[in-house]
Design brief:
This protein has 141 residues and is mostly helical. Helix content is 58%, strand content 0%. It binds protoporphyrin IX containing FE.
Length: 141
Amino acid sequence: MEFWTPPSGPPQGSPPSKEIYALMGEEPIFAMCRDFYERLAASSIGHMFPADQGEASEKLACFLVGLFGGPPLFHQRYGSPQMRARHLPFVIDQAARREWLRCFEATLENAEDRFGFPSAHLPRFRGFLSEFSAWMVNREG
Ligand code: HEM
């Protein structure tokens, strides 16, 4: 199977601030990911995700905990992240990426009130999501 590789290559921008974990705490990060996965399930790419969203949303939460400066939960529980390789079994084109980002955008609305996400750190996190999701795309078009 031939996969399309984004010509822009792996993300070059800055990752989210490592201060976020200490400011939010662990459970709100898990709650934010549950909210996101509920939106994904109801979206036009809902069919890509398992009916039981529990584990899938926890995997993302573990990844974000590490990224936000907390313990490396994803690595500890599931091994090396290798995110692009883990996404290759799924057909991800730009339309799928846009829908994924739209769902995350909805989760991030009022994220300070709902999950204690520090607003000052939102722009860089949004930038990261945009760039990192571009790297997950594996089909042209
Ligand atoms: C470009 C849009 C994206 C789409 C359409 C997408 C889709 C998917 C799908 C279908 C799965 C497998 C779900 C399952 O069967 O459990 C998955 C897993 C995952 N995704 Fe994404 N994803 C995207 C971007 C991202 C980004 C940007 C991140 C990180 C910020 C991310 C983090 C993860 C993680 C941590 C997993 C679990 C990996 C594993 O199975 O071990 N995804 N994604």
